Each structure stands twice: as structure tokens, then as C-alpha cells.
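User: Here's a protein and a ligand (adenosine-5'-triphosphate). What would the complex look like?
Assistant: Let me lay out the input and then the predicted complex.
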Amino acid sequence: MASLLDRKLLVLTGKGGVGKTTVSAALGLLAADRGLRTIVVEVGHQRRLPELFGLTTEDAGVETELRKNLWSISIDPDRALLEWLQALGGRVSGRVLASSGTFQYFAAAAPGAKELVSMMKIWKLTQSDSRPARPRRRSGGYDLVILDAPATGHALGMLHSPQTFGAIARVGPIASQTQRVRELLADPARSGYLAVAQPTEMAVTETLELQDGLHQRLDRTLHAVVLNGALPRRFSTAELLQIDSLDGSDSVMRSAAMAARAVHDRARFQHNQLARLRRRHFEVLPVPFLFTSELDLPAIERIAAHLSKFF
Ligand SMILES: Nc1ncnc2c1ncn2[C@@H]1O[C@H](COP(=O)(O)OP(=O)(O)OP(=O)(O)O)[C@@H](O)[C@H]1O
Ligand SMILES: [Mg+2]
């Protein structure tokens, strides 16, 4: 696993709400700490990373320096396509384009176009001539791009967009840019894929679907599964027997015993999901559930410390 951070692009995806952004941020911290100039890319209207660092960004589409070696950017596929069409159309203003219906027409007529244009932007960040907007020091671009991708289905659509759109544009500059994105996504030396899952039946099932989708569409496989929110198994069998025999006539004792049992059962159920992944030979990287009121920067740093042993 040591070499996974040596890739140019790491893609994280999984079911909605499982912790993709949290784990992307933690990996960003980890990579930056190791001296890699790292950028975390959020997709859509999300701007969680600057918020986490107490920063407000006026413009979501610009690279924001979060700390030494760490930047973030938010790429909105609609906006990316609009800008791209604008660049193509020369002097046509974005406002005219947006209101003329051309944009909607194009977006509908060219499946995969906005996803592909977003992927082109991401590809550009991996190139050595792409510089952070306000580099602290002389910068040759990013060493590592971490893509906090949308949930599984959308992410697969984004990753497959060079093929989807490539079928429309076979020649010319679009075709060659498409090809470069495709090569990056296909190259195990330059890109890697991580699933994030919670130890629940549905999230693990979605991980298995993701693995199949990656294989079918990109001929790639998941490097590992980050199992986020894992509960520890606190009690041994002997301790459980003791808990079960606690004095049932004392209501506090009875409630405490039930709570202990419930936590244990939940951890056991989670363990079954872990076993399900291991049966499919996935490398599983467990991240504990953090009992904090807010998942703030110190909490993300704790998660990064947990992940550091795997990277
Ligand atoms: N290990 C953890 N311990 C405790 N809470 C966590 C942990 N990981 C994530 N969370 C919390 O779970 C929620 C969802 O996490 P996050 O936003 O990272 O998920 P996501 O997969 O990016 O969601 P979305 O699909 O909406 O983008 C957040 O409130 C986050 O603070
Ligand atoms: Mg997210």
C-alpha cells in the first residue's frame, strides 16, 4: 500500500453519506504531512474542505490553500461545461450561453459531456504545468490529486465519460484530451481507486457493485476499502456471560446490560460485513467511529493518524 500515495490521482467513492469527504480530507492531511503537494477535489456545490479549515472561499471554482502542501477546489460539472463551451464559442458570453438554451441543448444532446469536462479539469491538476493560484513557494503543480467523487453511480458515470463522450468526438482536440483522461484513469501506475463504506449491509453491497462497475467499465479494481465508522468489539465471551447474568431486579443495571449487549451485537454485525469484504479478498482499512459532537479538524486528524499505518 505504501505506493498508493505515489499515484497522481486517487479516486474515492462509495454510497452517499458513508464518509467519502471525511476520508478524502484525512488522506489529504496525511499526504500533505508527508510532503506531497496535494489537492482535494470536491464535486458539485460542496465546499466542505475550506469550511473545515475555517476558510470562506468567494469562488468555489478556485484552488484554495488550506495549509502547507494542501489545497482544495470544488468542481461543478454544469459550470465546467459552461466555461468550456464559452471558451469554444469565443466571444459568446456565459450569460447568453446559459440563457440561450444552447447549453441545456448541448448538455442533453451530449451525454457525459459535463462529466468529461470535469475530468479534463481534474486531469489538468495532475499535470506539472498546473500551478496553485497563489503558491507559497515555487510550485511545479500537484503531486497528488484526491478526488472526493460523488456517490457510486455518478462516480462511475464520471469515470466512464471518456468512453461515453469519446463515441461522439472521435477526432480533433476533444478526442485527444479525452484520450489523455482515459489513459490516466486506466493506468495503475498513475491512478488508484478506493471505496469508502460503512460496515452496513447496503454500503458493503454497493462496494461490491462498485468493484464490478470499475472492472466492467475501466478494467480496473479497487485498491482497498476504507471501512468507516467501525465499532470496537469491547467484550469477550466470558464478559458477555457475566453481563447477561447481571442482577435483573436492578433497573439501572438491567439498562446498562442491555446497552452493552446492543453495542456488542452491533459490533458483531459490523464484523460480519467486514468478513463479507474479506471473503472477496479486499484489503480493508478500518476507521473507527469517532464519538465527538462535531467532526472538526482535530477529529479528521485522528482519522488521518489511523489511516497512516496503511499508507
Ligand atoms: N469515522 C467517523 N466517525 C464519526 N462520524 C463520522 C465519521 N466519518 C464520517 N462521519 C460523519 O458522517 C457524516 C457523513 O460524512 P461525509 O460527509 O464525509 O460523507 P460523504 O460520503 O462525503 O457524504 P455525501 O455522499 O453526502 O457526500 C458527517 O456528518 C461526518 O461528520
Ligand atoms: Mg461528501
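Summary: The pocket of magnesium ion (ligand 2) is lined by residues 20-21, 46, 148 (CB under 6 Å).
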